[in-house]
Amino acid sequence: QVQLVESGGGLVQPGGSLRLSCAASGSILSTAVMGWYRQAPGKERELVANIFSGGSTNYADSVKGRFTISRDNAKNTMYLQMNSLKPEDTAIYYCNVRHPVIYEYDYWGQGTQVTVSS
C-alpha cells in the first residue's frame, strides 16, 4: 500500500554534506514511525535515525550531532541531512515506515548509495 523512494545519494568527500529524501506514494498512518537505516558491505543493517508522529527524534550515537532527520507531512516526504560526513558513513541508506503495534505495517524503499571518499 505504501511505496517509498529514496533519492539524494552520491559520492562526497570527507567533511562534506548530503541530503537524502524519502518520498511516500500515499498518506502515512498518523501513528507511524519513520526512519533511516543503512547497511555497509559485510555489515548488518542498522538504524541511523527515527522520527515519530509527534516530531520527536532518535539518533544512533555514531551520527548524533552530524545528521538531522525531518519530515514534511504535507508532502509525504522524509529527509536526512548529513553533515561532516566520514568514510565510515559509506553505506546504502534505506527509508522505512512502520507501526509500533501493527506488525504488518512495515515498508522499505529501494535504498540509495552514499559513498564518502577522497
Q: Using DSSP, what is the number of strands?
A: 11
What amount of the residues lies in strands? over 45%
Low-confidence stretches: none
| Overall helicity | under 10%
Distance between the termini: 40 Å
**What's the quaternary structure here?**
single chain
Structural class by SSE content: mainly beta
Order of helices and strands: EEEEEEEEEEE
Q: Please, what is the average pLDDT? A: 95
Largest sheet: 7 strands, mixed
Summarize the structure.
The protein has 118 residues and is an all-beta fold. It has strands spanning 4-7, 10-12, 18-24, 33-39, 46-51, 57-59, 67-72, 77-82, 91-98, 106-108, 112-116.
What does this structure look like?
With 118 residues, the chain is mainly beta. Helix content is 0%, strand content 49%. It contains no helices and 11 strands. The strands form 2 sheets. Strands 2, 4, 5, 6, 9, 10 and 11 form a 7-stranded mixed β-sheet that branches. Strands 1-3-8-7 form a 4-stranded antiparallel β-sheet, with no helix packed on it. The radius of gyration is 14 Å and the shape is globular. It starts with a strand and ends with a strand. The model has no long low-confidence stretch (mean pLDDT 95).
Write the layout of secondary structure elements.
Elements lengths: L3 E4 L2 E3 L5 E7 L8 E7 L6 E6 L5 E3 L7 E6 L4 E6 L8 E8 L7 E3 L3 E5 L2
Parallel strand pairs: 2-11
Antiparallel strand pairs: 1-3, 3-8, 4-5, 4-9, 5-6, 7-8, 9-10, 9-11
Can you tag this structure with a few keywords?
49% strand, 118 residues, seven-stranded mixed β-sheet, four-stranded antiparallel β-sheet, mainly beta, globular
